C-alpha cells in the first residue's frame, strides 16, 4: 500500500497528524521532517530550546504558515490542501477560514484587542465570524468568563487586568469559537511567577473536560501532571517522545538531558 492510499484513513483517528513536515523561511529550513500524532482528547506537550521550531509548527497547524513538504492533517483534513486521488489542490481562502474556525490559539503575549472590554473580546469572533446574535454571544461569553474565574471583570479593558487575567480572557476568547483543538504557545512565559498558577489551573480544567490541546511550555510540572504525551524538539526535528513522566525522569538522548537540566 502506498503512503497516499494509507494516510487519509489513518488520519481520521488523530486530531493532528504530521508526516515528514518541512518548513523553510527562504533558505533556512526550520522544520526538517516532523512526524507526530496528537490523539483526540489528549494534552500534547511540545518542549525544546528556543529556535527549535515549536512556534513554527503550531503556526503551520493553524494555517498561519504553509508547509513546504510532507503532510499535515487536522481532524483528518489536510491543512491547506485537498486531496483527490494522488493530486493535491490548494484550499481556497474561504476553505482555510472554515478550517481555522475550529482551532483556538493562545499566545505568549495574550494579543487581546486593547480597545475592547474582556466581554467584547470574547464575543467578537462569534458575532463577526459565526454571525451569532450579540445577545446569545454575550450570554455564552459571560459563562466563559465565569469558567475562567473572571465574570467580575467582564467590563474591564485589557490594560486594567493583570497578565494572568488577560491570559484567562484570551483562553475564554479562543473557547468562544467552540474549537475542537486548542494550541497554546508558551502561555505562561510572559507572566510573573505568582500569576502562572491561575492560567495553568484553567488549562488543567480544560484538559479534564476532554479538550484536545497542544501546549508549548517550559512548565515541566504541568507537563508531568497533565500531559498525556510529550515531544522534545531540537533543531527542527523530533529528538525524543513518549509519556511525559517517562521522558522527563529518564531522558534517552544527550540533547534532551541537556535541555531538561536547564529547565527542571
Ligand atoms: P521556537 O518557537 O521553538 O523558539 P520558532 O519556530 O519561533 O522556534 O523559530 C524557529 C526558527 O525559525 C528560528 O531560527 C527563527 O529565527 C526562524 N523563524 C521563525 N519565524 C520566522 C520568519 N517569519 N522568517 C524567518 N525566520 C523565522
Ligand atoms: Mg516559540
Notable features of this structure?
globular; alpha/beta; binds adenosine-5'-diphosphate; single chain; 12 strands; 264 residues; four-stranded antiparallel β-sheet
Plain-language structure description:
The structure is a single chain. The protein is of the alpha/beta class and 264 residues long. It is built from 10 helices and 12 strands. The chain has helices spanning 3-11, 54-61, 93-101, 118-128, 134-147, 163-175, 193-208, 220-226, 244-249, 254-263, and strands spanning 14-25, 28-39, 43-47, 69-74, 77-78, 81-84, 87-90, 103-106, 181-185, 212-216, 229-234, 237-242. A 6-stranded mixed β-sheet has the order 8-9-10-3-11-12, with helices on both faces. It has a 4-stranded antiparallel β-sheet with strand order 2-1-4-5, sandwiched between helices. A two-stranded antiparallel ribbon has the order 6-7. β6 (81-84) and β7 form a beta hairpin. α6 (163-175) packs parallel to α7 (193-208). The chain is globular and about 50 Å long. It binds adenosine-5'-diphosphate (ADP) and magnesium ion (MG). Residues 25, 30, 48, 50-56 line the site of adenosine-5'-diphosphate (ADP). GO terms for molecular function: ATP binding. Keywords: Amino-acid transport, ATP-binding, Cell membrane, Membrane, Nucleotide-binding, Transport. Pfam families: ABC_tran (PF00005). It is found in: Cell membrane. Residues 16-260 form the ABC transporter domain.
Trace the largest sheet across and list its strands. 8-9-10-3-11-12
Q: What general form does the structure show? A: globular
**Integer average pLDDT:** 93
Quantity of strands, as a count: 12
Rg from Cα? 19 Å
Helix percentage: 25-40%
Determine the N-to-C terminus distance: 44 Å
Bound molecules: adenosine-5'-diphosphate, magnesium ion
User: What order do the helices and strands follow?
Assistant: HEEEHEEEEHEHHHEHEHEEHH
The biggest beta sheet, please? 6 strands, mixed
Give me the secondary-structure category. Answer: alpha/beta
How many separate helices? 10
Q: Hey, roughly how much beta strand do the residues contain? A: 25-35%
Amino acid at each position: 500500500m502506498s503512503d497516499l492510499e494509507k494516510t487519509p484513513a489513518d488520519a481520521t483517528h488523530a486530531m493532528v497528524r504530521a508526516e515528514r513536515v518541512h518548513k523553510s523561511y527562504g533558505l533556512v529550513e526550520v522544520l526538517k521532517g516532523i512526524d507526530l500524532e496528537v490523539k483526540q482528547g489528549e494534552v500534547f506537550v511540545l518542549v525544546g530550546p528556543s529556535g527549535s521550531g515549536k512556534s513554527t509548527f503550531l503556526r503551520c497547524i493553524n494555517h498561519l504558515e504553509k508547509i513546504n513538504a510532507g503532510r499535515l492533517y487536522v481532524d483528518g483534513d489536510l491543512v491547506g490542501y485537498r486531496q483527490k486521488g494522488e493530486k493535491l489542490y490548494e484550499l481556497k481562502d474561504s476553505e482555510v477560514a472554515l478550517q481555522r474556525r475550529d482551532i483556538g490559539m493562545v499566545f505568549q503575549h495574550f494579543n487581546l484587542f486593547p480597545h475592547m472590554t474582556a466581554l467584547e473580546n470574547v464575543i467578537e469572533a462569534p458575532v463577526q465570524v459565526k454571525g451569532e446574535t450579540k445577545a446569545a454571544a454575550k450570554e455564552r461569553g459571560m459563562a466563559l468568563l465565569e469558567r475562567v474565574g473572571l465574570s467580575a471583570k467582564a467590563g474591564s479593558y485589557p490594560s486594567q487586568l493583570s497578565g494572568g487575567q488577560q491570559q484567562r480572557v484570551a483562553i475564554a476568547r479562543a473557547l468562544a469559537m467552540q474549537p475542537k483543538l486548542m494550541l497554546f504557545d508558551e502561555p505562561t512565559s510572559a507572566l510573573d511567577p505568582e500569576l502562572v498558577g491561575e492560567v495553568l489551573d484553567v488549562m488543567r480544567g480544560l484538559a479534564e473536560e476532554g479538550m484536545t490541546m497542544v501546549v508549548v511550555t517550559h512548565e515541566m510540572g504541568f507537563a508531568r501532571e497533565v500531559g498525556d504525551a510529550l515531544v522534545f524538539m531540537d533543531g527542527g526535528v523530533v529528538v525524543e517522545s513518549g509519556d511525559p513522566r517517562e521522558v522527563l525522569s529518564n531522558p534517552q538522548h544527550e540533547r534532551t538531558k541537556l535541555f531538561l537540566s536547564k529547565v527542571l
